[in-house]
Amino acid sequence: MKPKVLVAFNTLTLIVVLIVNYLPNTGLFDKSVGEISNQYTTLFVPAGYAFAIWGLIYLMLLAYVAFQWYAIYRASADQQYIRQASIWFIVTNIANSAWVILWVNEYLGASVVVMFVILFALIKLTLALRLEVWDAPVRIIALVWWPIAIYLGWIMVASIANTAAFLVSRGYQGAPLTPFIWTLLMILVATGLYLFLIFTRNLREAAMVGVWALAAIAYRQWEQVPIIAYVAIAAAIVLFVAAGYHGAKNVETSPLKKWQRNEV
Predict the structure, then answer these.
(1) Is 0.90 surpassed by the pTM of this model?
(2) Which pLDDT tens digit goes with each residue over 156-199?
(3) Residue 244 belongs to what domain range?
């Protein structure tokens, strides 16, 4: 398929995502995304402010698509990133739209499946675009890598939270473990996955999204369940320090150093 056609599909499906995500706020559905989340809340759900990260994600995805149009206009070699990953980007957009519709209609089981489709497609995008495993110029880091890395970082948390909400909706309370123990386990698993991304794929940006989410979990539980709050904030600190250490160790390949060397 020609690059122009692929980018047109990328653009169209992203616009659909933005429209579908806006619709629950218009009263079209009986309940909003947030109202469903509050209805099936778990100890792993972050404080409400954490979901503002969707604004950043969508802005970066718009920049990602705009960069593709620019590459076509300039007929640059950067067009290769269109062919390498467009199919999986289109899948994420279609699945994202489907997730919203399923969620607000309380088809929570199906929403879990679709959420993992988004996660799988983002992993495929990470591999197809070879995120952070080669010495890319600043434009690729900022306009190709960062949008996908930040999206992936948030969907990792969302997948866990979505699954937990579905189990709560079915009346499952975690037996033989308690919800408290399950939440601690989920925090530890999430932290381990983010550390894996840092030290195997150099995906510090995804891990920083984990810091954001874990800090928001701590904030929400600070007075209700202090132990969970302490564990979540400790995990956030571990990720922050690990990302900082990794960044300092690889400072010569940082975007700032590349910018100073005119590697744009």
Answers:
(1) yes
(2) 999 999 999 999 998 887 778 888 999 999 999 999 999 999 99
(3) 3-260
Residue type, 31: K
Between CA 104 and CA 111 the distance in angstroms is: 10
Outline where the chain has alpha helix (H): 3-22, 33-39, 53-74, 80-104, 108-128, 138-140, 146-169, 179-201, 204-221, 226-249, 255-260
Count of alpha carbons within 13 angstroms of residue 83, beta-carbon side: 8
Structure tokens at 66: 């705009």
Residue 243 identity: A
Cα distance between residue 118 and residue 159, in whole Å: 9
Buried b or exposed e, range 98-108, using 16+ CB within 10 angstroms: bbbbbbbebbb
CB 144 within 8 A of CB 60: no
Tally of structural domains, the chain: 1
